[in-house]
Design goal:
Layout lengths: L1 E10 L2 E12 L2 E8 L2 E2 L6 E6 L14 E11 L6 E4 L4 E10 L4 E3 L5 E2 L1 E11 L12 E3 L2 E3 L18 E9 L5 E4 L19 E10 L10 E3 L15 E3 L7 E3 L2 E3 L4 E5 L5 E13 L1 E7 L9 E2 L2 E10 L9 E9 L11 E12 L4 E5 L3 H10 L14 H13 L14 H10 L3 E6 L2 E6 L8 E3 L5 E7 L7 E8 L5 E8 L11 E3 L8 H17 L2 E7 L11 E4 L9 E10 L5 E12 L5 E6 L6 E5 L4 E12 L9 E6 L5 E10 L5 E7 L30 E5 L6 E2 L5 E2 L2 E5 L9 E10 L7 E2 L3 E2 L4 E4 L7 E10 L11 E4 L14 E5 L2 E5 L8 E9 L9 E2 L8 E4 L5 E11 L9 E7 L4 E5 L10 E3 L1 E3 L6 E3 L11 H6 L7 E5 L3 E19 L10 E7 L9 E2 L2 E16 L5 E12 L2 E9 L4 E4 L9 E6 ...
Parallel strand pairs: 31-37, 33-35
Antiparallel strand pairs: 1-2, 2-26, 3-4, 3-27, 5-26, 6-25, 7-23, 8-22, 8-25, 9-10, 9-24, 11-21, 11-23, 12-20, 13-19, 14-15, 14-16, 16-17, 18-19, 27-28, 29-30, 32-36, 33-34, 36-45, 37-44, 38-39, 38-43, 39-42, 40-41, 40-43, 44-45, 46-49, 47-48, 49-53, 50-51, 50-52, 50-54, 54-55, 56-57, 57-60, ...
Helix pairs in contact: 1-2, 1-3
Length: 1131
């Protein structure tokens, strides 16, 4: 596209066209400039100015839009000598026009026109000086250097070869003698590296051949092209050669330059115009003078009157305001060369960006997709470029190596509106990758061959598995339109046929766009890749996982085994590891049984917490087992109990998949979207695409269920419809073998052991419940039982082994209590424990005694209580052992009591304590009903009780309680801000028939005097700083019903003792405590002896929380001045 609107200008009888083309963000290596298909060097009177977009580029000078013209009509004669005018300010280029208004010719006697020539000398000098440019008299110049000329940008191909060339040209200004280096066009081919055209204002000196990587210029790179003409006085003038020592410049020898000015020849009697344009060395105003050097003619047959008709000062104002862009400026004679405005100018540009060479990042021209991908995020097109710390440079470097080794390139001219997301996707696709992030850094997700999975997923560490498959009708081939670099980037098309089809048999083709692809070989290779992906990755899988997904990122290889898709034969965890004498693992025991068949080989994959998954072949043991023996041992310490395990036939234990998408969920969970890894997609350009392998393994026949546990004690009693409990045998089954989704039900049978009684067949239960309940049974009776699976088709398997079990039922002692804890809160001790699983539970008993006491000698602390938390003040100070046992409805007690030790100490001194029950619960209550007969609070009911409900029913039973009941006590004020301990003693007991943790929960809110309350928070006991305290408790009836029988909000402190020695006046003094007490403290006072040790005594009165009044008396009872020491004790 144009960087500015082109324009035309007239020079003599010729029209010139100027244009400025925008190549893109720089730097860009620009080469092979053409108009249509014709190289720019094949045109005449062409000037080219290339700016590649480097910060060091000189200002644009060839394309300008500020021309200051002065129209003149000054006759030029030899007799009249010099005619002089001054240009406008800020001239960078000057142009003069001379005109022969009557033409220029010699008219012969026969009337024919013959050639006539007139020479006009032109000189200029900076305004205010007499430093005139070279004229016809010539000027001698000493030897000089021209340069430096930097080598082309390095661009190495996949073999490491340099392949960039450029021919620069050194020219000399015809008027000033200044040397200028004109940069040529960079090309990949030496033959196309043509020199730039010679401007009209210059004379050529030399061509210089440059190749990327060459730091200096040798003699062989210099081509002498000085013209044989009148510009030099001697053929040896201004001879070019290398510098000594060699450098990036060339040496131009001494010589004399002659500037003949404008020489015009013609034989016409119509107007003849001639122009001369020349640059000036510095911005400013210049004096310009012209004179005719051809003798004036008075011959009537000669027509040669000449006038100076125009003086122009040209200021080069850059029309491109954006810095760092690459442009090509062009000035070309349109007369007899062009037809209208140029519409087909083109060039080859390659971005110069940091490119990974395999060892370092080098700024060079490159099409490597990985290097261009990094440049997208860090280049000038980004409003806020990313820093290196925000880029996954290690991953991008590995990707760049692969792209370079495989000849990958992204070649596109982006002259349309797009987004970073879209363009990054297109660039990454050229390197078989997609945009992504790794560890919070911008990276690329590559589709590459992988062999070691980063994670293993089974039903044990995932859930919500689902799969979908596209049943597509594949085309016979794909057609890819692209710009073919092999034929000059012309539009072309390549057809990639599917296996089994060719140009004669293919009838249905689909078009595939490959933006940025120009290499026909890459088009074919990636076309085959896409065909393979469509064939070998037809399914999409989804599964949910917890934080274990964190080790996997998009594009990573994972291993998946799942019964839903029949991949693998069993998945579980390692329950035990068998080792040899050196600690190496020889086998494992799983928490799931697996089945093996004769004639097949099997393997196990174990995923340890750290490191790669471990795969081992296992010894085939036909039948069902949970113990596997390794064919080769695993090094000691590699695997352990609890590790994830997957079992299956050799090479079919898991399916290898690629993480295509990660959708984060709550609490570090995520949904993973997976596709088959199908490594054959990466070899699709090497041969035929193999068929899709689903990794499905058909499970073995139906085996009997495995029993995990069997019980018949109080923990597994069955609750009948009327609420009563009955005995049963409860069987817990092992997990199904992996892949056995066809096993629908479990069927059981039982009978009294040792009798010929017929079997009692049990109702079928779903296999996924893993539970079988056998009843009715009698306590103390022994039974034998068997189980078997039934498939979804109704086909039963074989009965399992005979199991014999004696029913314990209600004769068994309750389980031992766990979680027993005791904590002193003020003058009370709070006990809490976990609920035992026994269903026939009557409650719990707590006993206590001195340390080491036997439970038989311990004193009972509580009667049977149904809750799991009690608070009592009945424990005296001292060291105690506390025992707790569960008691069932048959009077059986836990065989082994739980024991906890606690030293009970005196409580702190109470500042404020407000017992609520004696005051009739004066606070606010929500969802509680106050019983005036008992003084208790009961959860309110959402329906009315029966009309004849007795008092005890009202106090102990609620039909349908409210969900949450709250009671808030009146505010406690401790008089001033202080740090104190806050706690509350809540007394409650469960309603009839209730079990579980139904104790009310304490909450407090507190504030300093100057602040506001900020809301209640859960509380047990602890310190808080403030003046005002609010206490409340909440009862969640979903955990059980309880009636509240007491509540004592308390604020207390450790007792403080203040001792001070103070002076007292004879009339008495008011003593002020350094720290105020909350309540009036106890005060003790003693007076110091007088002179000579005569004893004195003191009195005190009016004791308050802030101080007291004291006086001192001598032995005669007279009040005297003196010193006393007091001790104040309190809170």
């Amino acid at each position: 596209p144009y960087a500015a609107q082109p324009y035309t200008e007239v020079e003599g009888d010729d029209q010139f066209w100027r244009a400025l083309f925008l190549v893109g963000y720089g730097p860009v290596a620009i080469e092979e400039l053409k108009i249509g298909e014709t190289p720019i060097g094949d045109f005449q009177d062409v000037e080219v100015e290339i700016r590649e977009g480097y910060p060091t580029d000189p200002p644009r000078a060839l394309f300008t839009d500020d021309v200051f013209e002065e129209g003149l009509s000054i006759a030029l004669t030899e007799a009249g000598g010099w005619q002089q005018r001054t240009t406008a300010q800020d001239a960078e280029e000057i142009s003069v026009d001379i005109t022969f208004p009557g033409g220029l010719a010699f008219i012969a006697a026969d009337g024919t026109r013959q050639d006539r020539s007139v020479a006009v000398e032109v000189e200029y000098a900076p305004d205010g000086t007499e430093d005139w440019s070279v004229g016809v008299g010539g000027r001698l110049f000493a030897a000089r250097q021209a340069g430096p000329m930097t080598a082309p940008s390095v661009h190495r191909d996949e073999d490491g070869n340099d392949n960039r060339h450029r021919t620069d040209r050194v020219v000399m200004d015809k008027l000033s003698g200044a040397l200028t280096v004109l940069a040529g066009v960079t090309s990949r081919k030496l033959a196309n590296a043509r020199p730039p055209p010679v401007p009209a204002w210059a004379v050529p000196i030399a061509q210089v051949k440059r190749t990327s990587g060459q730091a200096t210029i040798a003699a062989g790179a210099i081509v002498d092209e000085r013209p044989a003409g009148a510009s030099f006085t001697d053929p040896g003038d201004f001879a070019p050669g290398p510098t000594a020592p060699a450098s990036a410049s060339i040496e131009v020898g001494a010589g004399t330059l002659i500037a003949p000015g404008l020489s015009t020849s013609a034989r016409q009697t119509t107007t003849v115009r001639q122009s001369l344009r020349f640059p000036v060395p510095a911005l400013g105003a210049y004096k310009v003078r012209l004179r005719r050097t051809t003798p004036d003619s008075t011959d009537g047959q000669v027509v040669d009157r000449v006038f100076w008709t125009a003086l122009r000062a040209i200021e080069h104002t850059d029309p491109v305001q954006l810095s760092g862009v690459a442009t090509v400026a062009l000035r070309i004679r349109a007369t007899e060369q062009l037809s209208g405005v140029i519409q087909t100018f083109n060039c080859l540009g390659t971005s110069v960006v940091p490119d990974w060479t395999g060892a370092e990042w080098v700024e060079q021209a490159t099409g490597n997709p990985a290097s261009l991908y990094r440049h997208l995020f860090q280049g000038p097109a980004m409003k806020r470029p990313r820093g290196d710390a925000q880029m996954d440079l290690a991953g991008i470097e590995a990707w760049a190596d692969w792209c370079r080794q495989n000849g990958r390139a992204f070649n596109a001219y982006v002259d349309f509106r797009t987004t970073l997301r879209e363009l990054a996707h297109d660039v990454a696709a050229a390197g078989r990758a997609s945009r992504g992030m790794v560890d919070g850094k911008w990276s690329a997700v590559r589709d590459r061959p992988q062999t070691v999975p980063v994670q293993v997923f089974t039903p044990r560490n995932s859930w919500g598995f689902r799969a979908s498959k596209v049943f597509a009708d594949p085309p016979h081939g794909i057609s890819v339109p692209f710009l073919n670099e092999a034929i000059g980037f012309k539009r072309d098309e390549r057809i990639i046929y599917a296996d089994g089809f060719d140009a004669l048999t293919a009838t249905r083709l689909e078009t595939l766009e490959m933006f940025g692809f120009t290499d026909p070989d890459l088009v074919w290779r990636d076309g085959r890749f896409h065909q393979a992906v469509a064939k070998l990755r037809p399914e999409t899988y989804e599964l949910n996982v917890d934080f274990e997904h964190i080790v996997a990122t998009r594009g990573d290889l994972v291993a998946v085994a799942h019964d839903a898709m029949l991949v693998g034969l069993g998945q579980g965890r390692v329950k035990a590891v068998q080792v040899d004498g050196g600690g190496a693992a020889t086998g494992v025991t799983l928490d799931e049984r697996v089945t093996m068949e004769v004639g097949k080989t099997y393997a196990l994959i174990v995923r340890p917490p750290a490191g790669d998954p471990v795969t081992r072949a296992v010894t085939t043991a036909p039948g069902e087992t949970d113990t596997l023996v390794f064919a080769v041992t695993v090094p000691a310490g590699t695997i352990a109990a609890g590790d994830l395990a997957a079992f299956g036939e050799t090479d079919r234990v898991t399916a290898e998949m690629i993480v295509r998408e990660i959708r984060p969920g709550e609490e570090l969970t995520a949904k993973l979207v997976l596709v088959d890894a199908a490594p054959a997609v990466h070899d699709a350009d090497q041969g035929a695409i193999p068929p899709f392998d689903s990794k499905v393994t058909v499970p073995a026949g139906v085996a009997a269920p495995g029993i995990e546990s069997i019980a018949s004690d109080g923990a597994v009693l069955f609750r009948e419809g009327d609420g009563s409990l009955s005995s049963r045998i409860y069987v817990r089954l092992l997990r199904l073998s992996g892949g056995r989704f066809d096993l629908a039900d479990v069927e059981g049978r039982y009978r009294i052991a040792g009798t010929p009684a017929p079997w009692i067949l049990l109702p079928r239960v779903p296999a996924e419940t893993r539970e079988v309940s056998i009843r009715p049974v009698a306590d103390g009776e022994t039974y034998e039982l068997q189980l078997r699976y039934v498939t979804a088709a109704g086909r039963p398997g074989d009965w399992g082994d005979l199991v014999v079990h004696t029913v314990l039922g209600k004769t068994a002692d309750p389980n031992t209590v766990t979680g027993f804890n005791a904590q002193q809160n003020g003058n009370v001790v709070t006990f809490s424990w976990d609920q035992v699983p026994d269903l026939d539970l009557a409650g719990y008993e707590i006993d206590f005694g001195p340390p080491g006491v036997d439970i038989a000698d311990a004193e009972p602390l509580t009667e049977v209580t149904r809750g799991t938390r009690i608070t009592t003040a009945a424990v005296p100070p001292g060291e105690w052992d506390f025992f707790i046992r569960a008691v069932d409805t048959s009077g059986n007690r836990s065989t082994v009591p739980a024991v906890v030790s606690l030293t009970v100490v005196n409580a702190l001194d109470i500042i404020r304590q407000a017992a609520q029950k004696p005051k009739g619960w004066p606070g606010s209550r929500t969802g509680f009903v106050y019983n005036p007969l008992t003084g208790n609070l009961n959860p309110d009911s959402t329906v009315l009780a029966s009309a004849d409900a007795a008092q005890d029913v009202f106090d102990g039973y609620v039909w349908q309680p409210v969900a949450l009941a709250l009671y808030e006590a009146p505010e406690i004020d401790i008089d001033f801000d202080d740090r104190a301990r806050a706690w509350g003693d809540i007394q409650s007991n469960l309603g009839p028939g209730e079990t579980g943790l139904a104790a009310p929960k304490l909450e407090i809110d507190y504030r300093p005097d100057a602040d506001a309350y900020d809301g209640f928070e859960p509380w047990t006991i602890g310190e808080a700083e403030g003046r005002f305290f609010k206490f409340r408790f909440a009862l969640d009836t979903a955990k059980g019903l309880a009636r509240v029988t007491g509540f004592k909000p308390t604020v207390d402190q450790v007792e403080e003792v203040t001792v001070r020695t103070v002076p007292v006046a004879a009339a008495g003094s008011a003593i002020v405590f350094p720290t105020r007490f909350h309540i009036v403290p106890q005060v003790e006072v003693s007076a110091e002896a007088g002179a000579g040790g005569v004893p004195r005594y003191a009195t005190w009165e009016a004791v308050t929380a802030t101080g007291f009044t004291a006086r001192i008396f001598d032995q005669a009872g007279a009040a005297v001045a003196g010193t006393l020491t007091y001790r104040a004790t309190g809170v």
